[in-house]
Amino acid sequence: MVLLVVIGTAVGSSLLTSTAEVTDELLLRVQPAQVEAYRLQAALVNQETGIRGYAIAADRQFLDPYARGKQDEARSAARLRDLLGDRPALVADLRAVERGAAAWRRTYADPLAAGITPGRPRTIDRTNAERGKAAFDHLRTLWSKQNGDLARAVEDGRARLAHARTVRNAVLTGMVAAFLLTGVVLAFLVRLLVARPLEALRSASRQVARGDFAHVITGDGPADLTAVASDVEDMRQRIVTELEASRSAQDVLVRQAADLDAQAVELRRSNAELEQFAYVASHDLQEPLRKVASFCQLLEKRYGDSLDARGQQYIDFAVDGAKRMQVLINDLLTFSRVGRVNDSRLPVDLDEAFARALANLTASVEESGARVERPERLPGVVGDPMLLAMLWQNLVGNAVKFRRPDLAPHIRVTCETDPDQPDMWRLCVTDNGIGIPEEFAEKVFVIFQRLHSRDAYGGTGIGLALCKKIVEYHGGRIWIDTAHTGGTRICFTLPSAAGTAEGTDSRTDSRTEEKALT
């Protein structure tokens, strides 16, 4: 097709160029030359008329047509010479006319004009007139020959133009027929060699796409189409391989999900049993402890006078151990119930939670002379009001408890947006107490971990562990600011009310479902 286009373009261009040349030759040279020849002859007629009128009237105004005729003759001759430069026969006719005109002027017109006196008409010599008429008739004969040759040149140009157009139309018609025939042949070849194999490949691909992954895709036709079919078959094989692997992995995941569901059910049941056990055990254990403490106190009251110092010390140890066991059991029960008992998600004003915590610590705050600084307004969050009050109570209580002996506690509470998480509040409780060494910054949040003896500072070592559990239950984190000196700074984050509003309903529903299952 490309070769046909190139050949057709070359042939068409050649025909169009040839037709244009013939047309230009006829319209721009031969026909204008014919018109210019008529102008030349008119100029000679004007000369003859002018000289004849001057000879009769002896008036010089009759010489003006003669002079203009000579000028027009010269211009027309020059124009004809330009138009007929490549046609020797027509140029020869022009030269013959120019020679005849020059001979007529030399032998008749110019002598006649020289022999006439202006203003004195005279009788024209008949012999001279006859000689001038014969010379001009010879000139007319030359005109006729020139006109005939030009007419034949025009007819010849028209014939050549018609022939060129006929050849052009025939060749262009043949080219169109060749293009159409080539298009038909190419369409047949494309249908036979490309369309049918492509349709077969398309049908096979659709069969695989409908789920028949075992169907083998074969290629036929040109090399490019065969390569495409081979690539599609390779892709099918990879898909089949990955599908088998995916199915195997899916079976494994289904089994694992079933195992996890069973484990989750078992874990819920176990957690429910553990919670019930913790509640029952705390009550069942506290009753014997109360009896031990009561009877020890009765024993001290009744037989205290008969006991020596060591016996009195033993009784004190027994009473103190029973009381500490009661406190420890209560703390363990509280720790285990965080997030499981009274699981409520409500809008909480941290100001109210903080005020409740300070009310519970009124005695220790007044006794120690502690000074508490806090923001004018604390933000609102979504959570458990009781747990958040317990969080404030533990943090402020620790600041009061672990104070320096010679310095009144100064506790400062700050609140700001967490720079790392814009939807979280960062709250810090800073004191001027004994501080926490950097190496114990993580250990203090582990349950029952103590940095000091019970004689120095009381407690069970569960306070900060409980704070960590409360903060993490609300979606935040808690840490010791080790860069702070001159006391302890404990910081924690809590989600803002706007940030937790969207996820509250889904978490509440999941916990409700969990309780229903247990």
Comma- or semicolon-separated keywords:
518 residues, alpha+beta, Four Helix Bundle (Hemerythrin (Met), subunit A), Heat Shock Protein 90, two-stranded antiparallel ribbon
Summarize the structure in words:
The protein is of the alpha+beta class. Among the domains are: 183 residues, Four Helix Bundle (Hemerythrin (Met), subunit A), CATH 1.20.120; 177 residues, Heat Shock Protein 90 (2-Layer Sandwich). The chain is built from eleven helices and seven strands. The strands form two sheets. Strands 2-4-5-7-6 form a five-stranded mixed sheet. Strands 1-3 form a two-stranded antiparallel sheet. A hairpin with a 6-residue loop joins strand 4 and strand 5.
